[in-house]
Amino acid sequence: MNWVNAVVQGILLGGLYALFATGLSILFGVVRVVNLAHGDFAVLAAYLALVVVTTTHLHPLLTLLIVVPLFGVLGYFGQRLVIQKSLDVSPVTTLLVSFGLSVVIQNALLVAFSADSHSFDVGHLISASVQVTPQLSIAVVSVMIFLSAVLLLIGLQLFLSGTALGRQIRASADDQEAARIAGVDTHHVFGIAAAIAFASVAIAGVALGIYSSFDPSAGPPRLIYAFEAVIIGGVGSLWGTLVGGIVLGVAQTLGSQIDPSSGVLAGHLVFLALLALRPQGLVRARLAA
Amino acid sequence: MLEVRNLTVHHGFLPAVSDLSLTVEAGQTLAIIGANGAGKSTLLRTIAGLHRPTSGTITLDGKAITGLSAHARVREGVVLVPEGRRLFPSLTLEENLRVGSTAGRAGTWSVDRVIAQFPWMADRRREPTVHLSGGEQQAVAIGRALMANPRVLLLDELSLGLAPTMLRRIYGVFPQLVADGIAVLLVEQDVGQALHVADRFQCLLEGRTTLEGKPGEATPQKIEAAYFGLGPSGTGSAA
Q: Taking CB atoms and an 8 Å cutoff, what residues of chain B touch A173?
């Protein structure tokens, strides 16, 4: 590993973190919910994909066609039937409910699948790479994950700025009461936002299983990285999640370059430094410019 | 058209509106006047579905809408222009207008018709509304409400903080509303302005009607007495 390689790998790793951060950012930016079970839902999606792979022998990438819509539906009804009810009580209740869900999901997965770690067998794809220079080789899987994050963000941007429903989501995020008197069914709109957040977390979960491995306790660290990416990039900013993810990824790979055991620590330190120096985030907060 | 009967609304334990009744017909304007804290805004917000009444009914053409949520009332044609405008800061002017048509009611109001009403909007439709002046923002708030093709328009404190010239331009939209047969319920602290455009008025004190009639019928003294709860016409006051 040289320095250029570390930076390139860090940028690509940032794509994975952006996938995790997008759902968190949307749920917080629109519905004002801090979902502490976010990482666990990603791991749940990965296990669901694992079950689909073992029962149907589908290629792991094709499980996205099942897991993503399923999580979208889960997000919509989870929002309308559970999250909204706790929101109506108080935001603190929502925090406690999501924390409870986090514990429940981890333990349910532990009971159902044991503590063994799993990863997806994507065949030759996992070892496929492009040798750019003698010292720099880029894994195809990393590029695919990075591009999927970019495509997801482009798609979301187009949806939020170019459709009536996207406009209603932004209006509801701005001022829920004003949206209601303009005729927007904000509960439905929040359901749609949660559906998008959960669909994106399902993509993140499957990407995690392809990129590295997962076990029932893999959720909370992912939540921390997602939080850090969101805050580095700027809360409520869509492209900020990618910027934040990249900053975090590069900090981690550069940290590992200096000392192989300090990568994660370097990421946290950069996060803390940016939180102190630029608490509003690197990108101006705004859902879809 | 819009009928409110024996409406009582509480804020916590305190009644903000007490046993209040009113009717507005198509193409008519009813002004609700009264001092700060008389319950005017609470009344409008309750009709719009933002507060739950303790008792009483709200009907539109005889159909009860008391149990409907705010967005469902917009679908029925009851639309509020809230105090403080409440535009969406991250949306452009035109996007703000378009959110107003979410309920999908049929009618003649469109972005083009709103712009025809307020021609200055044409050059600024892609601007965020935070750059606009208070009066311009008020015009956008009215435009957003008209985009829903309302049957009943609830206007809360249009004149608050506006320059007189801007006020004239805002109130210039009234003849259109009358021509469209929209029933207007207007809440104003500017009594002169309210009585100028209204067909009828109701004066509120502590959530109750203390005086009602046509603007020409009541003397300023009578209105003043009802407004502040002085003398024999102040039926709502303990004195």
A: 90
